[in-house]
Structure formats: structure tokens, C-alpha cells
Design brief:
13% strand; six-stranded antiparallel β-sheet; three-stranded antiparallel β-sheet; Beta-lactamase; alpha+beta; globular; single chain
């Protein structure tokens, strides 16, 4: 009789063991809104994509998502907006504008009006003996100018970016930015700088207008972008902002719809081509999306999903493809481009620093639904 007692004891514990099993709870049914956001043939499992997009709007701890657009192979795969926003809403770029500015510079290089490894036309740097005359266009694009700068800090008015945009530099931002002294040898140090991108925008205006007045500068740059980039891509919503001196605020203030930001991302995915036309040389996009000498996860005005410094990854290098790159703006504006998956993901909204980690994880979930081609 004793031989059966252990068996009886084990059998008696089975209901308790079943109750303690680690079976996942069933997922909640998707709402009509979540399912309606996904196209008929999205290139990924429909319900999984709908749920991943829904998470970007409903997940606690990632802030406020206002728009999501997913394009696969140049076709709309998913699109959703928060209440109060829609396909016609223009969203501010913040630093996503930097990638647009770099494309404009690439077009001017292709036109022969600028040269990558030469000093650009910045008059004050060309004075005899000025060490800033050694700064090249390449170094500006890769954030390696060596100019003194603080992008952000504990005291906002000590930020070079804040001073340029809102305080003593706001009327002539390029004058403020180019007046900064060197703090490092040109090319030796990576320093992320919105002010540097304004210098690039000023350089574009100078080669397009030859020192004309503010209105002529505004018109020349706006027309160039419209005729060479936004018009051919069908980006009809784009509105650039200029300062009082007529300089494009090319580091932070270009407005456009989520669909148009997705069109820009798809243009980058196609290496600068659109419907058989090469709008900017393929090699230029490859330059923008190749690691710079100063920072493994930064190219030319473009972030890369690879080799981030410890604790400083604005993407998700441990999860996503190394070929993924992005235009990234303040408070969680993203145009993610994964060429190996023919994928573009746009997320626009408002997230603070503590929420960014959760947001990046949810965006990585969307990317992982699409296998490499």
C-alpha cells in the first residue's frame, strides 16, 4: 500500500500545478479602428501589424502618438491617426529636417556648385588666419566641424541651439552659428549640432543667390526644394520655415503630413530615385547612410541603427537590422527606413526622455514583422 502513496500525492497536486502554469493570457480582440488602419495586402500578417500599430497609440508609457504611416515596397501598408489629427495635418519635423537639408546639399554637390572636401562659402571663415577656414563641407555634414556648441543642457538658455532659435541668434541664425570659435580641431570630434545644419542651409542659400537679400534667399531655397525634391516626389504639403535673414531653419523647422514624410523615407529607401529618375546621386544617399569617422551610429545628418556608444542609442541597434537608418526629431518624430525589408515607418507625436525606450521597442516590433527580402 505504501508504494501507491507517492503517486496519489503527485496526482493530488496536478490541479495546483495547472493553475500555476505560464500559459500566456489570450490577447484582447482588436478594435475596428485598429483593423481598419491596415491595408488589404500590407506585406506582413494583418492582425499582427494592426496590433503593433495599435500598441503605438494605446501602450502606456510611450507618450502620445499622433500619426503612424507604414509603407512597404512603396505602397501604403498601414495608416492611423489620433483624434484631432489626420492625413491633411502638417507635423513639425524638428530634427528630421536635417536629413532633408543634407539631401539638398547633395543636389548642389551633384550640380557642381559645392564640393565635399573643400571649405564651403562662409565669408567670415575665409579671412586670413582664421582656423575655421579648414572646416570642410564633409565635416559639417558629419557633425565634425569642431565649432563650440552645446545642443542641450540643464539650463536651457545655456544651450547653443536655444540661443540660436529663440534668443540672441534668432534673427540671423547662420550669423550666430558661424561666429562660434573652434573647441576642437576640424574633423577630430563628433558634436551633434542643430546650429551646424543651419550653417549648411545658409551655404545653400549663398550658392543659389550670391549674397542676395532675405526675400531672395527664401525664394531661391524654397523654389529649389520644390522643383528638385518635393515636386517630383509629390510632397505637396511641405512648408519650410526661414529666419528673418532668409535662412532656412534646416535643422528643425520643416512641416509636412505623415504621408509626405513617408514619401521622403521611401525616396531615401530607393537610394535617391523615384519612378525611374535619379533625383540625387545614389552615392550621395550611400554617403549619408554610412558611418562617419566620428560616430558609428551617425552618417551625414542621418542616424544609423548600428554601433551606438554605450547608453546613447536613439534607435534599437540590439534588435533591428544594421542597414536601418532614420531621420529623427525631438520628442519622438521618426522616419525609419529599412532598405533590406523595403520598409518605411513614420511615427509622429510627443514623447519625453523617459518614454523613448518604450516607444523604440514598439517601433522595433513593427519592423520585425517584415522579414528581409
Amino acid at each position: 500500500m505504501r508504494l501507491f502513496l507517492p503517486i496519489i500525492a503527485v496526482l493530488g497536486t496536478l490541479p495546483a500545478l495547472a493553475a500555476c502554469s505560464s500559459q500566456p493570457e489570450p490577447l484582447a480582440p482588436l478594435s475596428r479602428e485598429a483593423l481598419a488602419a491596415v491595408a488589404r495586402e500590407p506585406g506582413a500578417p494583418t492582425e499582427e501589424l494592426a496590433r503593433s500599430v495599435d500598441d503605438l497609440f494605446t501602450r502606456d508609457g510611450l507618450g502620445e502618438t499622433r500619426a503612424v504611416v507604414v509603407m512597404h515596397g512603396g505602397t501604403l501598408a498601414a495608416e492611423r491617426y489620433a483624434p484631432g489629427y489626420g492625413p491633411q495635418t502638417r507635423f513639425v519635423s524638428w530634427s528630421m529636417a536635417k536629413t532633408v537639408t543634407a539631401v539638398m546639399i547633395g543636389m548642389l554637390v551633384a550640380d557642381g556648385r559645392l564640393h565635399l572636401d573643400e571649405a564651403p562659402p562662409v565669408p567670415r571663415w575665409r579671412r586670413p588666419g582664421d582656423p575655421r577656414g579648414e572646416i570642410t563641407l564633409r565635416q559639417l555634414l558629419q557633425m565634425r566641424s569642431g565649432l563650440r556648441h552645446t545642443e542641450s543642457g540643464d539650463v536651457p538658455y545655456e544651450s547653443g541651439e536655444v540661443r540660436m532659435l529663440f534668443l540672441d541668434g534668432r534673427n540671423d541664425m547662420a550669423d550666430f552659428a558661424t561666429s562660434q570659435p573652434l573647441e576642437a580641431e576640424p574633423g577630430a570630434k563628433f558634436e551633434y549640432s542643430s546650429n551646424t545644419t543651419v550653417i549648411l542651409a545658409d551655404i545653400a542659400a549663398r550658392v543659389l543667390t550670391r549674397d542676395a537679400g532675405p526675400e531672395a534667399r527664401r525664394k531661391a531655397v524654397a523654389d529649389y526644394l520644390q522643383n528638385r525634391l518635393w515636386g517630383p516626389l509629390g510632397m505637396t504639403s511641405m512648408v519650410p520655415e526661414f529666419d528673418r535673414a532668409g535662412t532656412l531653419i534646416g535643422g528643425s523647422l520643416i512641416h509636412g503630413t505623415a504621408r509626405d514624410w513617408a514619401r521622403f523615407g521611401d525616396f531615401m529607401r530607393s537610394r535617391g530615385s523615384h519612378r525611374g529618375s535619379q533625383l540625387v546621386p545614389r552615392r550621395w544617399i550611400e554617403f549619408m547612410t554610412a558611418p562617419s569617422p566620428g560616430r558609428g551610429n551617425y552618417g551625414a545628418q542621418t542616424w544609423l541603427n548600428r554601433d551606438p556608444p554605450e547608453g546613447d542609442d536613439p534607435l534599437f541597434a540590439k534588435r533591428g537590422p544594421r542597414s536601418l537608418f532614420a531621420a529623427i526629431g525631438h520628442m519622438g518624430q521618426y522616419v525609419l527606413v529599412a532598405p533590406d525589408r523595403k520598409l518605411v515607418v513614420v511615427r509622429l507625436g510627443h514623447s519625453d526622455g523617459e518614454q523613448m525606450g518604450v516607444l523604440r521597442g514598439e517601433m522595433a516590433d513593427v519592423v520585425e514583422l517584415y522579414p528581409p527580402n
